[in-house]
Write a structure and sequence with these properties.
With 301 residues, the protein is mostly helical. It has helices at 17-31, 36-60, 68-72, 84-100, 109-128, 144-147, 172-183, 189-201, 206-224, 229-239, 243-250, 258-277, 284-300; strands at 2-5, 130-133, 153-155, 162-164.
């Protein structure tokens, strides 16, 4: 099988190049002022960012992409709409499955990231005939965490940097797989969602399978709750999740704290608009588009 390795050199640096780029003007002003040294600092940060991005781009142009239509018979950007009764039936099936097979998350993040990357790489290779190998490095912090307080993680599509902002328990394997899909060149959120799900759900690891099924259940419930956190948490009680799972799900859509209460609606609106400008359907791709695609594939199968 053909093998392609993308270096992702930026992911091995102690500080994300994107953070260097954002922080350099402030640091230059504070420590050097409007001096040649200050300007050199900013130019250096830009050079590190642009250089790592350019190297990855040069390799990534040879990457083979998944043809969703031929592989699954459904376009993830325009899947047929699932009905509310269909979603409720799916929820019942998923609740029964995850309740019966619950496993606590006890794998260190570094080890988990390597395992997730292996399964994702294997899955994509089966679909494309090319083994696309990338870094399995994951950061615990990026400045994007301040800008997007509602996000669980982030990926820089140019440098391949990935950060997971908080421990999300049983959901973590899917969050990592989603961000690694971006690292491998799938920039649309619905594509990252479905590829991450299919790779983990089809793996032989019950912890990874559990994460995929819980992600799907969470997104189905959020759609049924009209993306309202209070309604979502009411549904959690109604569907009968076992206590350990219910507690994990409650952390997924908590009531907004002081800072997030003001910032989240603004940034969600901006992010939704940005997604639409790049040819996506908006934030609904994370949940409605994602679950519509999976259910359409299963109906056609």
């Amino acid at each position: 099988m053909e093998r392609l390795r993308i270096p992702n050199l930026a992911t091995y640096l102690p500080i994300a190049p994107s953070d260097m780029l954002l922080a350099a003007p402030v640091a230059a002003r504070v420590f050097f002022g409007a001096t040649p040294a200050g300007r050199a600092l900013q130019v250096g940060a830009l050079g590190i960012y642009a250089g790592s991005a350019a190297i990855d781009w040069a390799f990534r142009v040879d990457a083979k992409r998944v043809d969703f239509q031929s592989s699954f018979g459904v376009d993830p950007m325009t899947p047929p709409e699932a009905t509310a009764p269909e979603r409720r039936t799916d929820v019942e099936s998923l609740v029964e499955r995850v309740n019966a097979g619950y496993l606590p998350m006890a794998i260190p993040r570094r080890e988990l990231a390597e395992e997730v990357d292996r399964h994702l790489t294997d899955f994509l290779a089966e679909l494309t005939g090319q083994r696309l190998e990338t870094s399995a490095q994951v950061r615990n912090y990026m400045l994007a965490q301040i800008i997007f307080p509602f996000a669980l993680g982030a990926a820089d599509p140019l440098t391949g940097d990935v950060a997971i902002f908080k421990s999300v328990g049983i959901f973590e394997p899917h969050v990592i797989a989603h961000e690694f899909c971006h690292r491998k060149g799938y920039l649309k959120e619905v594509e990252a969602q479905v590829l991450a799900y299919l790779a983990l759900a089809g793996s032989d690891d019950p912890v990874l399978q559990q994460s995929a099924f819980c992600e799907r259940l969470d997104r189905q419930l959020f759609v049924l709750a009209d993306r309202d956190a209070e309604k979502y948490n009411e549904l959690l009680v109604e569907v009968g999740l076992r206590e350990e799972l219910r507690m994990a799900f409650e952390l997924r859509h908590p009531s907004a704290q002081t800072y997030a209460r003001f910032v989240t609606p603004i940034m969600k609106g901006a992010y939704d608009a940005r997604m639409k400008l790049t040819g996506q359907n908006g934030l609904s791709d994370y949940d409605e588009g994602f679950t519509n695609f999976l259910m359409a594939v299963e109906r056609s199968a």
